[in-house]
């Protein structure tokens, strides 16, 4: 459990209002909530959906197959042209993991670690939802996330943000495992004399505690900026802020899809074209939404493989 010293350190980082709002909402487990933008239904908060989904898949004879699919990782490679990219970062490779829901991976991450160990990259980013549940104890999730980090080896380390499943009290434990969490903060990455900035915001989906303006305070206006956010719900704001590349997850690509990877449910407040894979917003900002590395509700997937993503930055 987190102690008072750690809570005070978090308050100093994020501010008292941010911390109070997050702690208050963490005590609520409601599938329907009146938020800043209206009434929203949060499917991941409906406890009955998991058993219902399991019963349905079992009835259709698909449950065991769906469980096997949940650790059948696809390695996706994305080339990211950035016109203003500093020359030293041409070819820079970023490993993205997202939506690990790590304590509920059926083999406790064994296959995932094997996949990661076979890859080469310069930086690892984790775009939220380290844990499976949205309430209750989180210590096992932190330990399991630490086990995943044993497979991650790269010169620029691991940077992440929190998702709607994550409690802010997890931050000290995750950071002890070498995961630098950005809570509306930024981090410069240097190669020689060149720099790009990683900008990270707290969860914009359930907690609505993102503050992109604050996260950008120390970033030079002309710098290349890569945004980490849990979900793709900050498209317009990020585009106006001059973000060059937006990395996110949350949607799981649908997780349970129709043939052809057609999602049945879109759990993000944005158009479907932004919930999986590469996209462009208003022809000005590029981005990528991971299908996720883990699974929510149940460790199952159909017609939607979990992914581990390599983003290679290039000068066009």
Model description:
This protein has one domain: Purple Acid Phosphatase, chain A, domain 2 (4-Layer Sandwich). The protein contains nine helices and 16 strands. It has helices at residues 4-14, 16-26, 49-59, 63-69, 110-117, 139-149, 171-176, 212-215, 235-240; strands at residues 32-35, 38-41, 74-81, 93-97, 123-127, 158-161, 179-181, 185-191, 194-200, 225-228, 245-248, 257-258, 262-263, 277-281, 285-289, 307-314. The strands form four sheets. It has a six-stranded mixed beta sheet with strand order 3-16-4-5-6-7. A six-stranded mixed beta sheet has the order 8-9-10-11-15-14. The protein has a two-stranded antiparallel ribbon with strand order 1-2. Helix 1 (4-14) packs across helix 2. The protein is globular. The N and C termini lie far apart (48 Å). The model has no long low-confidence stretch (mean pLDDT 94).
Provide a quick synopsis of the model:
The protein has helices at residues 4-14, 16-26, 49-59, 63-69, 110-117, 139-149, 171-176, 212-215, 235-240, and strands at residues 32-35, 38-41, 74-81, 93-97, 123-127, 158-161, 179-181, 185-191, 194-200, 225-228, 245-248, 257-258, 262-263, 277-281, 285-289, 307-314. By secondary structure, it is of the alpha/beta class.
Q: Topology, please?
A:
Layout lengths: L3 H11 L1 H11 L5 E4 L2 E4 L7 H11 L3 H7 L4 E8 L11 E5 L12 H8 L5 E5 L11 H11 L8 E4 L9 H6 L2 E3 L3 E7 L2 E7 L11 H4 L9 E4 L6 H6 L4 E4 L8 E2 L3 E2 L13 E5 L3 E5 L17 E8 L2
Parallel strand pairs: 3-16, 4-5, 5-6, 6-7, 9-10, 10-11, 11-15
Antiparallel strand pairs: 1-2, 4-16, 8-9, 12-13, 14-15
Helix pairs in contact: 1-2
């Amino acid at each position: 459990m987190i102690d008072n010293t750690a809570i005070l350190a978090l308050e100093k980082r994020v501010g008292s209002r941010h911390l109070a709002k997050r702690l208050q909402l963490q005590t609520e487990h409601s599938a329907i909530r009146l938020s800043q933008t209206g009434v929203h239904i949060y499917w991941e908060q409906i406890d009955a959906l998991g058993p219902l989904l399991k019963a349905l898949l079992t009835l259709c004879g698909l449950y065991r197959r769906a469980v096997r699919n949940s650790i059948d990782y696809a390695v996706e490679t994305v080339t990211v042209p950035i016109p203003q990219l500093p020359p030293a970062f041409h070819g820079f490779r970023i490993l993205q993991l997202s939506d690990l829901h790590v304590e509920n991976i059926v083999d406790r991450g064994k296959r995932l670690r094997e996949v990661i160990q076979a890859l080469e990259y310069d930086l690892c980013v984790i775009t939220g939802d380290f844990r499976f549940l949205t309430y209750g104890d989180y210590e096992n999730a932190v330990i399991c996330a630490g086990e995943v980090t044993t497979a991650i080896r790269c010169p620029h380390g691991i940077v992440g943000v929190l998702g709607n499943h994550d409690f802010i009290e997890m931050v000290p434990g995750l950071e002890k495992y070498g995961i630098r969490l950005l809570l509306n903060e930024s981090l410069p990455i240097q190669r020689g004399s060149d720099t790009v900035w990683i900008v990270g915001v707290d969860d914009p989906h359930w907690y609505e505690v993102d503050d992109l303006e604050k996260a950008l305070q120390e970033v030079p206006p002309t710098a290349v900026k890569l945004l980490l956010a849990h979900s793709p719900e900050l498209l317009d704001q990020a585009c106006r802020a001059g973000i060059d590349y937006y990395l996110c997850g949350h949607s799981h690509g649908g997780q349970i899809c129709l043939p052809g990877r057609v999602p049945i449910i879109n759990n993000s407040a944005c158009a479907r074209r932004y919930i999986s894979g590469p996209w462009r917003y208003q022809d000005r900002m590029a981005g990528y939404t991971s299908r996720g590395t883990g699974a929510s509700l149940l460790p199952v997937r159909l017609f939607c493989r979990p992914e581990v993503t390599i983003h290679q930055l290039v000068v066009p």
